[in-house]
Amino acid sequence: MAKLNKKTVDDINVKGLRVLVRCDFNVPLKEGKITDENRLVAALPTIKKLIGDGGKVILCSHLGKPKGEPKPELSLAPVAVRLSELLGQEVKFAADDNVVGENAKAAVAAMNEGDVVLLQNTRYRKEETKNEDNFSEELASLCDVFVNDAFGTAHRAHCSNVGVTKYVKTAAVGYLMEKEIAFLGNAVETPERPFVAILGGAKVADKLNVISNLLEKCDTLIIGGGMAYTFIKAQGHNVGASLVDDTKLDYCREMMEKAEKLGKKLLLPVDTAIAKAFPSPIDAEIEVGYVDVDKMPEGELGLDIGPKTIEIFANEVKSAKTVVWNGPMGVFENPQLAKGTIAVAEALANTEATTIIGGGDSAAAVNTLGFGSKMTHISTGGGASLEFLEGKEMPGVAAAQDK
Fold this sequence. Notes:
33% of the residues lie in helices and 17% in strands. It has helices at residues 38-52, 77-87, 102-109, 133-141, 175-189, 208-217, 228-234, 249-262, 307-318, 339-349, 360-368, 382-390, 395-398; strands at residues 18-22, 29-30, 33-34, 56-60, 91-94, 116-119, 145-148, 170-173, 195-199, 220-223, 265-267, 271-275, 289-292, 301-305, 322-326, 354-357, 377-378.
């Protein structure tokens, strides 16, 4: 799957044609201002290529979860303003609550080669997430060519990334999509070894299939974050009041057995940061202690990996040639409980290995801590990169035409 045998923007001629581009502009907003524009910047190469080739570029995206109705605070208007600045040319915003309305149709009809129009939030329409034909057909009526460059939603089959492809003659993928699949695909299918995978985050349930799939592909699997406590309990230790999924204890034991059978290293925390309660608010100062995982006191909960674990995990990364990381090692939003996540980020920043950060919280952590530029690739899709690592087919990729 790593070699993406799909039509890309380099394989199509868009001169004079209307090109609908599904981007991922699902950016965080605070009081109408964009607080992290990584996703906008990531979309620029594809947009500039299509402008340069003389296409009439119509952009669409979702933002947040308006659940099928117009919500002014989730309008894409601020994105049009910032994109205009980033591109150095006007991005005309078609403010239709029904997305493909009079404004959109008029704006598209008036386009010249190289012009850019942005449609309203596709999730203002309830049909979008259900992939219903009527909205897919409306979107397709605006264009001659469709390009999907939204890796962040590639694991979903919606109107604006999958449904629309039924009604257009040409459906290709953009540069971002191509890059994501090359990095994640090569890492999983043909990695340079040793290949180390690091999984964190709160819930084992979210990562069940990923754990199983990665054990078959990697040389070492490191598990931290909240999900580690279910594994620690499965080892027979008392984990106090830590987050545990008792329904997954057998699964954790199976995974430990699987690792042994396949001759893979499965590294779990040997010590942990503990506190009497979860910090509230999340960044509040709390009293933190450190204990070995077999000495966790009743009533206290583990909230980060401890110093011995940090050393073991960081050492393992040093000898790696490929590292994939998805999910923080602790409650990284709290400075006292971010030490494990910071240490892993530092270890990845200081290695010569190919380092791939699988979107979501790990991407946020790496960027917030200032290590972003030291990573080989930071995925723009949290859930999408996870499903990719599970080995699932992505509807958003499958819908594009083969070369």
